[in-house]
Write a structure and sequence with these properties.
heterodimer, A: mainly alpha, MetI-like fold, about 75% helix, B: mainly alpha
Chain lengths: ~300, ~325
């Protein structure tokens, strides 16, 4: 240790050390990589940090155009308390939470059942039905807004949470991902239980599902994030302010607030918070989930 | 259990019996039929109601002059499609969509690749890199729109402060038709690059480590290893990420609509926004359905291209 610090003092010796790297450490490339990474990370964090900084300013400071991180009157939670004193934010957050949870539970349940049928059970039409469902992956939900809205009108579900939830539960890509996972589970595990007289559902419930916990978690997290953030469909099907989800509700308020920047930013920060917490908790599953769902079509 | 199901005799056919030679053993074949359908039923019901039927009904609507209020609804044949092809706003919004796709796809692939390659070097602070690059992807379109409207504020926004620091003239980002699409692209790259970043990271981790070890034994440096091993190995991932990104960019609506405060601009209106406007502002359901099908056709063509490319990859493997 002491010899190392002593050699570093000699300029020539220091250069010799960097030129002959031990493993990957401290090459010019590594330093450069670190610098670029840092710049990118700062660039990516800044917009959000700027929003946070604005949220802690007074409206006057925010509108003054002063580019400082802390307003002239010092940091304040005025904007947050103004937002939270309006009941709608809680209501919207609750609507988002429960509808996104419902979408997730229903989607994962029906997709897992269907995927198991396609993976393990034999019935007539299994092959062509699977092809039809997989082909439906290419259908962009945006294409369906007109006929879906029409259907919700006919079913009397416009301006209801079921009208918001039900059209979101069909996820052919998830069936595909889960089927591929089930296919990889050794059949012998199930055969042993079946010889002992366990029913198909019992095998599915007590053998297949526990083995699939990681993939189910990934799928569930992704469905949840998608449903929580979904904008277009909730925006179309819900008109009643009390039934709105957070993204749609907040959107209606921007125009109402006019130029109250600090409050708008406080809202944005509050709405972002739950998902940042979800990410910090489920980081591993989310990273894995992107890989499986993103490459799902491969 | 399966053999005791009372309705076993109903669905047995010769075809099913011959087909039922799957790898799993045990259980009666006819029982399997029923159980298969039972497992499938909930999904199939939802699929039929909320995907298959709307697709077919949408196609039917596109041949009518249906409006939201229920007036009209008569069969007009191909009139809506003829109108669409002669509609300058349709072509304009299609052009905007393609322009946005071109502008956004390149940085969304290149920056994601850069991020992933740098993070994959195993530098300290892994969770921080992942958090900063991926976190924006988790935010709702409403939230990112609010943040960027604030940044692009012409008088007091951060973007113009940066320009001022470099001695440049301020820009009315979102209000100026010349720059509003650029502003939307910048916000979109910031918002969604994290997804591609994670896809690249997954692809990088699949590259066999031995290749690098062999290369460094042969004396290949970091840069040489990057161009000779990393980039070629990422080829399939890049094709896929690029195609997925094109398909995603073509669906532009949420952030473009919200960043302009719900207003329509001839330089940012995307095809999905035009579908929304004709259907839910103009109440012309029939015409809007026809526009949806024009858009759908484009997506299907790209989907087929994607399928062909991935299949070729698989055959080559």
């Amino acid at each position: 240790m002491t010899t190392a610090t002593r050699t570093l003092v000699v300029p020539g010796a220091a250069r010799a050390r960097t030129r002959r790297p031990i493993g990957r450490r401290l090459t010019v490339l590594t330093v450069l990589a670190f610098a670029v990474l840092l710049i990118l990370a700062i660039g990516w964090l800044l917009p959000f940090l700027w929003a946070v900084a604005t949220a802690f300013k007074t409206e006057t400071d925010a509108a003054s155009g002063d580019a400082g991180w802390i307003g002239a009157s010092g940091p304040t939670v005025q904007a947050f308390s103004a937002i939270l004193s309006q009941g709608n934010v809680y209501l919207w957050a609750w609507n988002s939470l429960w509808t996104a949870t419902a979408v997730t539970v229903i989607t994962v349940t029906i997709s897992a059942l269907a995927a198991y049928a396609f993976s393990r059970l034999d019935f007539r039409g299994r092959k062509w039905l699977f092809v039809v469902i997989i082909a439906a992956i290419v259908v962009p939900p945006q294409v369906l807004i007109i006929p879906l809205f029409y259907e919700m009108l006919a079913m009397g579900l416009v301006d209801t949470h079921w009208g918001l939830i039900l059209p979101q539960v069909v996820a052919p890509a998830m069936v595909f991902i889960l089927k591929r996972f089930f296919d990889a589970i050794p059949v012998e595990l199930e055969d042993a239980a079946r010889v002992d007289g366990a029913s198909r559902f019992r095998v599915f419930w007590s053998i297949v599902l526990p083995l699939s916990r990681p993939i189910l978690a990934s799928v569930a997290i992704f469905v949840f994030i998608g449903a929580w953030n979904n904008f277009l469909w909730p925006f179309l099907v819900i008109n009643d302010t009390g039934l709105m989800t957070l993204p749609v509700g907040l959107q209606t308020v921007i125009s109402a607030y006019g130029v109250q920047y600090a409050q708008v930013m406080a809202q944005a920060v509050l709405a972002a918070l739950p998902l940042i917490i979800v990410f910090l908790i489920f980081q591993k599953q989310i990273v894995k989930g992107v890989a499986t769902s993103g490459f799902g079509g491969q | 259990m399966t053999s005791t199901t009372p309705t076993t005799t109903t669905i047995v056919t010769g075809r099913a019996a011959t087909r039922a030679t799957r790898r799993h053993a045990g259980g009666s074949r006819h029982g399997e039929q029923l159980i298969g359908w039972a497992f499938l039923a909930p999904f199939l019901l939802a699929f039929a109601l909320f995907l298959a039927w709307p697709i077919l009904h949408g196609l039917y609507l596109s041949f009518t002059d249906q409006s939201l209020t229920g007036s009209g609804g008569g069969f007009v044949g191909l009139a809506n499609y003829v109108d669409a092809l002669a509609d300058p706003v349709m072509w304009g919004s299609l052009g905007n969509t393609v322009w946005f796709t071109l502008l956004s796809t390149v940085p969304l692939v290149v920056v994601a690749l850069l991020m992933a390659v740098l993070v994959d070097r195993g530098l300290p602070g892994q969770w921080l890199w992942r958090l900063s690059f991926f976190m924006p992807y988790l935010l709702a379109s409403t939230v990112i729109s609010q943040i960027w409207v604030w940044i692009f504020n012409p008088q007091i926004g951060a973007a113009n402060n940066v320009l001022k620091a470099f001695g440049l003239e301020p820009i009315a980002w979102l209000q100026d038709p010349k720059t509003n699409m650029i502003a939307i692209v910048i916000a979109t790259v910031w918002w969604t690059v994290g997804f591609n970043f994670l896809l690249y990271l997954a692809a990088l981790q699949n590259i066999p480590q031995q290749q690098y070890e062999a290369a460094s034994l042969d004396g290949a440096g970091g840069w040489r290893q990057f161009t000779a091993i990393t980039l070629p190995q990422l080829g399939p991932a890049t094709t896929l990420i690029g195609l997925l990104q094109i398909l995603a960019s073509l669906k532009l609506f949420d952030q473009a609509y919200q960043m302009l405060g719900g207003l329509s601009s001839d330089t940012t209106r995307s095809i999905v926004q035009y579908i929304y406007e004709t259907g839910f502002v103009g109440y012309r359901f029939g015409y809007s359905a026809a526009l949806s099908y024009v858009f759908f056709a484009i997506i299907i063509i790209l989907g087929v291209v994607q399928a062909l490319i991935t299949r070729r990859r698989k055959d080559a493997r």
